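Listing S7. Sequence submitted for prediction.
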Amino acid sequence: MSEHAFDPTAPLPWSQPLRVAELASRKPNRFDITPDTAICAAIAEWAGISALRRLRLKGTLTPQGRSDWLLEADFTARVVQPCAITLEPVTTDLREPVLRRYLADMPEPSGEEAEMPEDDSAEALGSVIDLAAVALEALELALPMFPRAAGAVLDETLAAEAGVTPLRDEDTRPFAGLKALLGGAQADKDGAEDTDKD
């Protein structure tokens, strides 16, 4: 589980800025970025994980109309986190599509739109688009919240007052009492049949 709480004001450990004014305005601008070993270590510390084995963001920035931009990319990474149960290292391969729309005239949300944005891929366009910031945000969103090692099982804890049967995890599952109910119904049926035979 990531111990890092994303803080948009915190300095990022990696930056790959592209100046919008220098981008080709008539064709897709291709990019393929990956941090070196030292930066991977800094990102792992920033993200609150044990290690970042690799990270890559590959895609295009395409002009949309006269002043907007569309970023489409594939995000891949391999991360190591402590198991949420045993604390053993758990390695996970991440892969997510990334979509961002950079709008020169970003509409101001109002009323219900401020609470429920229709398009969370839209961002205000600035003079620079930082591809590393996009990759780090994708990493934060893709990290498993409760990584679990193979075979790791959370021990069941039973507790109840004296004279009361403790409630088990199994008892809280849907249809948990159905088997017992059907078993009781079958026993009543068998008892009735035995009575009829007598």
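Caption to Listing S7: primary sequence and predicted structure tokens for the chain studied. Confidence is low (pLDDT under 50) at residues 1-5. The two ends are 64 Å apart (CA to CA).
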